[in-house]
Amino acid sequence: MPKRKMSLRNLKRVKSLHPETILVKQGKPSAVIVRPRHTEYLEIARGIQAQIKSLTGVSLSIVTADRVSEKPKRNLILLGNLNNNSVVFRLYGYNYTPVDAIYPGKGGYLYHSIHDPWGTGSNALGVFGSDLDGVRAAVDRFLHGLKQGRTLTVGRVFDVKFGAEALRIPGLVKDPDLNSEMEAAEEALQRGEHTGLWGRIGERGLLYGLTGNEAYAELYKRLVFRMYEHAMSDPDNYGGIWGFDADFALHKVIPGWDLVEESPNITSQERLRITRILFEFITDCVPHVGNMEVPHVRHNHTTFAALGLYYSGVYYRKYYGAGEAEDWISLADKCFQLQARAYKPHEDCSGYQWLTHYHLTKYSLSKGDMTFFDNGCARMAADYAILTTDNLGYALPYGDNASPFGWWSELPYLRASVCVMGDGRYQWMLNKKTAVEPRYSAYEYHSSVKPEEPSDLDGTQTFPVDPLYYDSNNGSSYLPYKKTVDKVVFRDGFDPDAQYLFLDGLSNGGHKHYDGNSISRITENGRIWLADCDYIKSLPKFHNGVLVFKNGQSMEIPPFVELERSANFEQTGFSETTLRKYSGVDWHRNIIWNRGRYFLVVDEMEAREEDDYSFRAVWQTLGNVEVQNGGLSVDQDGEQFYITGVPGTTLKLEDDEVTGGNWEEYKHAPPVVRILQQIADVHLKKRENFRYFNLLYCSDADQPQSLRMTQLTDGAIRIDGAGEVVYAGVGHPQTVQQIPSGPDVTAAQFHLSPSVFSIVDGTSLQWGGLGFKTDRPVSLEYLVREGSGKLIASGRTQVSFLAEGRSTVLVNGDETRTRQTGGVLRFEVSKGEHAFRLITDEVNRLRQLSERKFRPVARKPKASQVSKGKVKLLKPVWTYSGGGPFLSIRGADLTSDGHQEVVAGGTGGDVCAVKEGDILWRYRTGGEVRSVWTADLENDGQTEVIAGSADTHVYVLSAGGKKRWDFEIPLYYRTPMIRTVFAGDINGDGNLEVIVGAESWRYYAFTHDGKELWHQMTVHSSTQGCAADIDGDGRAEILAGTEYHRWHCIDGNGEIRWSYQPATGPRTNSVAAGDVDGDGMKEVVFAGADTNLHTLKADGKLLWQFNTGDEVTQVDVVDMDGDGLDEVVACSMSFNVYVVKGDGKTQLWRRDLGEVVRCISVGDFNGDGKPEVAAGTEDGIVYLLDNSSGRVMGRHQMEGAILALAAVDVDGDSVVEIVASSASGNMVVLK
User: Fold this and answer.
1) DSSP per residue over 885-909, as a string?
2) How far apart are CA 307 and CA 752, in angstroms?
3) Residue 868 has pLDDT above 60, yes or no
4) CB 3.0 to 4.6 Å from 623: which of 179, 238, 636, 1058, for a disulfide?
5) How far apart are CA 807 and CA 695, in angstroms?
6) Is 2's pLDDT higher than 80?
7) What is the dihedral sign for C-alpha 724, 730, 736, 740?
8) Cα angle 731-736-742, degrees, rounded to a multiple of 5
9) How does 509-519 read in b/e, with b if 16+ C-beta sit within 10 Å?
10) Which of 769-773, 817-821, 836-840, 1177-1181 has the lowest mean pLDDT?
């Protein structure tokens, strides 16, 4: 029978330690000297051999590393480092030794003992250096400590001297203060630090292996014991008792323990206790790997846990023969063996995806499974790292990434790629990156090879989607695999001053953004010209693309971009990428590149059905800007960049200081994102196009440019100022386009000047006495002056060249057989790329032709803009300023006179009660007041005021402004600034409870007199909430909005009844409840920042979504048409106010106000017995919209954006007035 595996649950004894390394025992050899193959090491090894023989009379064997078994039976004396000794390479993978090209560094040495790393009872002595001088120094330290005798033994030893390179590694020379470290750990537990204390534990363990400092071993022990004590107290942690994402640290915790438990300062009893604790922790990590039977590319959360389980399994199998260890290793194998077949993980995110790649690399190199490298996937991934790095050395921040410079998480993977593959291109990119960000860590496979510029990744590059990634994201449901593309890059060399443009081809995967077909970045002249980076802001509007609205609505952006065509030539480059079936159109984005000069971006919006469309081309930049020439001029520290459009669109420029905060460290511009929208409202027939033309270019002292662009036809523009006239644009491979004063061209894309002809997928061109024609589409670039070019044919092709007076054509260096008729040369080429040569003298004639006068013949689609017309002005009743701007407004009769006073909270930290334009009272808090509420909490007929402040307190005030009570929300994860307050009877006792949502990931409930009833973890900051009885039991439920992908319904006991997780994006901006379908139960409506209204039944099941095309800023649920059913009233940053019936499809009406609508309030503002809608916009206008059609009944202009609206009866006539506050600090009552 097979031997039964022990279970760690029954562990009573810890493994044996082997502190002594015996080299010679009673005159017999007990060790082997293991050297690298280099001849210099043979000399060093012989020196060691001779010295030991002189001391003991015994000659130890010398072998090369390749002769050592995976589980040596003898002790080893190891020479060299990671990069030249394969035995060291294997030990390095398990963190038993850190020796590589930077540790201990040139001239430094490391001489240390490695105890029982193979589980055989055999030790190793590392006699190490990053170079030969270091190894020789380590040998001297080793030999100096040996003593004469028939038995030669070495005890625990850690002797290191650091070279300059090693000092780049954080923490090597720090002497930790135990008391300070433990105080910091307590604070970390209090705030719910990510990974609990396990991240600290793992790091301290590895630092012990790097320094030999016993204080780190002591810290490891103390932190584990404190973590366990905290876990056993059943803390209110998100993510479980061990901490949020605690499994992320496991891959460091276990190797760290393998090092630390050799410390002489840890007793056997302490070792046993820690080993048991770690088993409990590991057991809790197992579920985090997930279902490994699903053949999908892996998520970094999965590979974090799997790598930790692999190390755990190896440790507990090797030293304890534990049955659980086999299961852990099996899970890790299933995780990584599938991922090894792919060059892209689950994430389409430049920060996270490299975590998975490096986890896979660590697993592969530790285990010795080289599949990932042998099948070419590792090389593809490393090339991807180069491709997605701009010319300044920064990784592109696509996906969830708030740093414009990237996370640098690609560095460990590139280092391992250099070490394993020895590719100088990866070394070159590493050198470039670390020159910008000299970031180093230990155990990252540091090596060094001769750098080589990756010129093969220059020019126009299209990177294919990984096949397994495609299958994992149901790619066949959207596009055939061959039509997909992951990334498109244009790069004119790798100099920081050279052009770089990056286009994303995906809107799917983990940590994705909806940025398919957007241009994430352009760099040139040492600057970043397009701003695109944020962690949460994933919607299309936060990227440099085109927003599409059909009849006021949009749809989720398709997940895959189609690559229709691309071409890479010597002087030009092209791509056409398309999003199919995107909100009623096919969006074709054409990039036409004149290398070293400019990019022409042509966005073709092709209608799939007739309708009214609103298109908004978005360009985000940084710097000093000026609106001009249909676009922007941008200045960053004296360098200029231009976005030049053509007339016919409405330009809207706005600043985003919040997203700009991501750019604080960018030194060339203030941290403000400048956003230009080119807006076109058009009516298109089926297959009709609207086209944007935008010219993107830099101008500097070395190459001053002032380019002018004129649209000549629907698909062609003329560019002047580039040294010679250029005709460029888009068309169809079978339809001739006659360009005024220019050529006749039949091609999908073209860029034509007198000296260079470039076309993509074209069949004919004629200009003056020069031209060609083919029987199938070809792509070519012809340098007219030089008479040379490149032609790309998709199959055997008949070519006819018009070249008067010419009789020969060279193809691929050979004179090809031609037929000449009337100045036309005819020949044939096979499928593929062909260099050709045809000398002509047409350049000057073509230049003369291009100077002729011309008349544009471009047509514009029918406009569908809605005119606002003249409307009545709303009458101000009174105005108040002081304590604002006000962010939240309520109305309540505080003085019991039948008139409602206005209660407002604002940025100044005040809660203000205002009556007839004068301050009634003011209560000062210690921070911005983001939310106020009014209610009779004590059932005494007197109204109380609830206020939530950024000072982390909730305040309840009397009707006279006196504090009744306050409560300080405790710290957890984030500073608990209060976002929302409201009241509701949540337990059916007839009293209202106070509900508070804070940024500390929690909602709180309090009794009317301030006693905490409960708090509930809701994950990430609270946004807006409300209380409503949605199940008809007489008790209100709490509808809790957050800034994340989880919005909750919490019952009166503080338990989460259900959580809704929108698939399309995080954050809700508002929530309301009402009976929209007539079933007698209230539905819940969330206003999603993901552009959708989400309407849910009382059980949390989605009833319907309604896409507004941009963030829904506020929602209310009101019976607008008097049919007894509530409608959903909502406003959106898409400029629209909507009234939607309960079926989620029928719009009672929609009104486009031409500007972002920030807030609404619904009430009978004119006393006709029907509710109207007040709406406030970004440009400071308050609109009153008619009940039945949304017609503008009145308006009032304020200074600054409208921040809040409320319906308040300030004069006691039973007809509510509009109260509005604006960013200027004013609050006005309108009638």
Assistant:
1) SEEEEEEE-SSSSS-PEEEEEETTS
2) 55
3) no
4) 636
5) 39
6) no
7) negative
8) 85
9) bbbbbbbbbbb
10) 817-821
